Amino acid sequence: MNFSLSRATLIAEADLVGIAGERAICDRRGVLYFPDLHLLAVSDLHLEKGSSFARRGALIPPYDTGATLLRLQTVIADYQPRIVVSLGDSFHDGGGAGRMHQSFRERLEAMMAGRDWFWVAGNHDPEAPADLPGETVQELAIGSLLFRHEPSKLRVEGEISGHLHPCARIVQRGRSVRRRCFAGDGGRMIMPAFGAYTGSLNVLDRAYAGLFRLETLVAYMLGAERIFAISGSMLRPG
Description:
This protein is of the alpha/beta class. 16% of the residues lie in helices and 30% in strands.
């Protein structure tokens, strides 16, 4: 993110945030890590999206699964979590796990070995992934946190979700900058999509209406070297 941020725009350079009383690291690569719980959360991997499109005649480069798993492997190696929670849409469709190349399956299983791994059911993959270890759940409560795929319309303190693929846009000195982001207000957090072939939706879109306390909304924008915490008042649509 090669631009200058004023003091009014930049709330904090640190990536350590609080969510319903739990400490979390917003990693610039798009994962959340809870050091006190030794838990890593990732959302919307959308593995095998390329092969899903190919089955419907839309030929796009089939490199998404390998690229996504390589990034995930690096993150897991860095944090060495005891628990991994994949927050739904881990596969782009219900048959994605079955189509995954054996080499990718082996890489994924190596990451999972020795850890508690939870697949949260998503709208793209509501069933357990075929022939893979881990436990499939509709939602998962750990401590003061609730992990689920789609954010609840009713206020749920401690909710960590995905699904909406949030991004944020600001205008600084006449320049528009748009980045994927974590979106939170101290009580709940919506995570960015991690998958290589995933898009994003501005946090000011009506799909987010009522989900956050606007006075405490912060977009934690993903920069090349760090997270930029941007006050909700500085965000722009588009």
